[in-house]
Amino acid sequence: MPDLKLHDINKYYGDYHAVKGISLDISEGEFVVLVGASGCGKSTLLRCIAGLEEISDGDIVLGGQSIARLAPRDRNVAMVFQSYALYPYLSVYENIAFGLRARKESEDTIKRQVAWAADILDIEAYLDRLPRELSGGQRQRVAIGRAIVRDADLYLFDEPLSNLDAKLRDGMREEIKRLHERLGKTFIYVTHDQIEAMTLAERIVLLRDGHIEQLGKPLDLFEKPDNTYVAGFLGSPPMNFVDVVVEGGSVVLKDGQRIEGCSIKDGAYKWGIRPEHFSARSDGPLSVTLDVVQPTGSRAYGSFDLAGTHALAELGAHVGESDAKDIRLAVALERTSFFHRATGNAVSPA
């Protein structure tokens, strides 16, 4: 399984610069997720790798060979699309076998490969059915099966779960991760869903406006974001941002409340606190009044005003059950982030 190297990839549509000088090395067998908001260039980049879009300049090197000018069929790349793209009048068996037949594989090879894919994806019982007789999740399994029967160097997934309901997405995420571990092949997966990115990826590439904003292991991006965009994109519920001043080791809010023990040098900052960084404690340094409490079963989310900024805290399941809405909060200060107000870039401890 060869490495994939993207060298300064640019893609223009007329005057519109969709992909802006992206360079990226992906190791063999790695699971990389391209994530970002709509229009950030992630699907365009994936289609460029597949050969469905021609790059404007740059190079794509797979296993030491440039594939940038090869036709899609000559790149030995398999792709799973968002829309399933199944042939409606072919059986599940024939949908999975279609690519193998196009390459004139023997019937024995086709039968063996289809049975192997059907076993991995647990769709043996549906091989004689037509796509319209399947659920959304079953159709997506067929689409994945059609891709994995090929002994491809690279497997590409373009938002394959976006048409499924929440429960099915959860199950299919687990199946795709298990599939990657079983195949040991290189996967590149595109999604706008940061939960999918966090749960699936060995490495996340977060795109913004056609360029890489930050890349790294999921927890590195989550716990050590380079800037406020990355910090705000990853996390559900999202990070809270509050304007503060650091003075002599204390974080000072606009209303005068203080939290001691800060290692950031003195100055004015945007302070990033994730909901789970808060905890309800009687000796907590912050005094707040809960506005709305949203129970979720194992925990509750409480919203409140924090020095003029709307904030959300992850609290215990039974917080807010009483009529008393005034509570005190502690903050895991060492887990929070500080950013320059002007640039939005992260600030390291002094």
Question: Can you tell me about this structure?
Answer:
With 350 residues, the chain is α+β, with helices and mostly antiparallel strands. The protein has two domains: 4-227, P-loop containing nucleotide triphosphate hydrolases (Rossmann fold, 3-Layer(aba) Sandwich); 240-340, no CATH class. The chain is built from eight helices and 20 strands. The strands form four sheets. Strands 6-7-8-3-9-10 form a six-stranded mixed sheet, with helices on both faces. Strand 1 (4-13) and strand 2 (16-26) form a beta hairpin. It is globular and about 75 Å long. The model has no long low-confidence stretch (mean pLDDT 92).
| Poorly predicted parts | none
Q: CATH superfamily membership of the largest domain, which one?
A: P-loop containing nucleotide triphosphate hydrolases
Coarse shape: globular
| Corresponding CATH architecture of the largest domain | 3-Layer(aba) Sandwich
Largest sheet: 6 strands, mixed
Please tell me how large the radius of gyration is: 24 Å
- DSSP summary, beta strand count: 20
Report mean pLDDT, rounded to a whole number: 92
- Relative helix content: 10-25%
- The CATH first-level class of the largest domain comes to Alpha Beta
* Class by alpha and beta content: alpha+beta
Total separate domains: 2
Which strand order does the major sheet show?
6-7-8-3-9-10
What is the distance, rounded to the nearest whole angstrom, between the alpha carbons of the first and last residues?
A: 44 Å
CATH structural fold name of the largest domain: Rossmann fold
Question: What's the SSE pattern?
Answer: EEEHEEEHHHEHEHEEHHEEEEEEEEEE
* SS field, number of helical segments: 8
Strand content: 25-35%
